[in-house]
Every structure is written in C-alpha cells, then in structure tokens.
TrEMBL record:
UniProt keyword terms in alphabetical order: Oxidoreductase
Pfam families: adh_short
Name of this chain's protein: RDH11 dehydrogenase
Source taxon at top rank: Eukaryota
GO MF annotations, alphabetized: oxidoreductase activity
Organism of derivation: Tichodroma muraria
Entry similarity comment: Belongs to the short-chain dehydrogenases/reductases (SDR) family.
Amino acid sequence: AGIGKCVATDLARRNARTILACRSRERGQAAVEEIRAATGNPAVVLRLLDTGSLASVRAFASAVLREESRLDVLVNNAGVTGLPFAITSEGLEQTFTTNYLGPFLLTNLLLG
C-alpha cells in the first residue's frame, strides 16, 4: 500500500521485473494482481519478508541471491510506528528491528 505500491507500479510500468516483499501473503498477492493489471507487466512477483525478523530477512536475501540473476534497485520502504513495546524472538526491540536493523541487514546481504 502507499508509497511502496506506487513505486512498484512505476517500476512495473517501465517493464522492470518487480519483486514485492510483503509480510502478508494475501495483501501482497492482491497488490501483485492489481499492479499486473494496471501495467500489463507479468513480471511482478511476491516474496514474503518481515523486516522485524532477522531470520526472515536472511531467508529472503538468500532466495533473491539464488533465484535472481541481478538486482538493480532496492527500495527499503517498510516501517512501523506506534506499536507497543515488544521484544522479537531474537531478543531485539520490534520497532527498531523492523525499521532499522532489518533493512540494514537486507541491504548488506544483497550487496554481496
């Protein structure tokens, strides 16, 4: 939704293979179908990613590096605000992990 969906739509309009990295399979798949219909680009795909989980970030990055021949642009857009204080299963504060640590780790893993 929001800025991320707009950026993904613009990239798809430019005929880019576009990977939507979403927490929710249902919402992500709906966005994929909407973007494909709006742009005519069938190369819009969904991959699950929760930047609040470093294990999820590692799995996502590993799959992208294994499955994709190249990566030209990375847009780190996910974020949360206003959540109650919570600690992840990895012992990290949830908001800080989702907004900073997860995207930082993702970027560094994808740089190779």
